[in-house]
């Protein structure tokens, strides 16, 4: 009796795994990772996509950005675009059209590392960047970022905002990298 029950359980598990693998394979092959579905975007999402397209184009021309951070293969439809690499944090660029605000920051998923950076190095990091940072702790992540108010609206002033973000992404990364314990 026990053997029969065990065999049936194994058959069910095998069938479920087979379905998961088959279904997952079909999803991967119908929607490439770097492709964004552009159907049914809201006006705000379209603006985000246009803005990040400008930033991605300028990032390929920036003398340091493409060497230090990878250029995005596609444009985000969200208010932020992040740049990950091997390290205790990642760089995030954010925009708010309604507040005419852009932000560049270091985002941490390890709260202990964030505490260490904030307690030990915040003053030196802020001096290296030339700006006070907003140090923000949440339940599962933390961030330290610069906010800048720039004059831009529907596509006017975007290049200036993008150039500011690209320059400060490099400055922020270099300032935080000084304190990575290797």
Would you mind describing this structure in some detail?
The termini are far apart. The chain has helices at residues 2-30, 43-61, 65-68, 111-129, 158-177; strands spanning 80-83, 90-96, 101-108, 134-137, 142-149. The chain has 182 residues and is an alpha+beta fold. It is built from five helices and five strands, in the order αααβββαββα.
Strand content: 15-25%
Overall shape: it is extended
Distance between the termini: 57 Å
Counted by DSSP, the helix tally is: 5
Helix content: 40-55%
Which H/E pattern describes the elements?
HHHEEEHEEH
Largest sheet: 5 strands, antiparallel
Radius of gyration: 22 Å
- In the sheet with the most strands, the strands line up as 1-2-3-5-4
Number of strands: 5
Poorly predicted tracts of residues: 24-34
Task: Tell me the structural class.
Answer: alpha+beta
Q: If you average the pLDDT, what whole number results?
A: 83
